[in-house]
User: Fold this.
Amino acid sequence: MGPVARGAGPAAGRDAFRRSAGTRGLDHTTIARRLEGFERDLGAPLFERGPEGFSATPLGEEVLAAAERMEGEIIGLLRRLDGAAGGLTGLVRLTATPHVASSLLAPALGGFLRAHPGLQIELVGDSRSLDLSRREADLAVRMSRPEVPGLVARRLGEIAFACYAAADDPRPFEAQSFLAYEEVSGSSPLQRYLAALVPPERMVLRANMMQTLLEAARAGLGCAVLSCFAGERDPALRRVPAPRAMPPVTLWLLYHEDLRRSPRLRAAVAFVDEVIAANRAALLPPGFPPDPA
Assistant:
């Protein structure tokens, strides 16, 4: 399928249409122009334009389904070629949550890259679960195990979380204001933990990154659920005993089975294993979880 079809992509609605433009580095006008040209070539409309945007016609649904199958086959072939490639050269895309990427993995990369001068690392700190099957990343460190066919999931260890406030903030848990993650009612274990202990009206700040909440806690805005890896080593923070401790969260290492034999991937897996092993006591401090307040 030609560039017009690739420009349209698997966009089956107005939100997907916008994403199609953004992920390909094209503006919406360019995508719409390519789509119109493709429809002229076919002699039939693929999308209906309405007040709220685009919706796929029955023919459009068929074309998009075929394009997605073709895309999947091409992505699978490229992934298998990567897995068969020899030598410790090339790019490895490693993704983790922003906190794990910046605080745990990034500081350790110097020694790894010196030991493997032919490798390059793309370290993506993202709270979203990037699609390993579509090669959005080669390797992921996550706090949940996805049930996705074709992925290898291995338990790395555990990471502990607790409530922290500024070291000069003497308020007990019951008197604190709270700094929360976005979508407090969501599925994240951190969100669920705090939502079960604190009513929404006591949450004075919501943010999507742990580093933001850490800085806000250090500034005295209130109490946040942070990793013990960050909180225990920061002299500007103190742990605030909570009515109930949060259970440790399992860290998972994920990659696609097609890359199992890739020398690049295996070197990156060994790097992650070494980093976790070197920081195991900091990730899960002795005696955790602490006694409740």
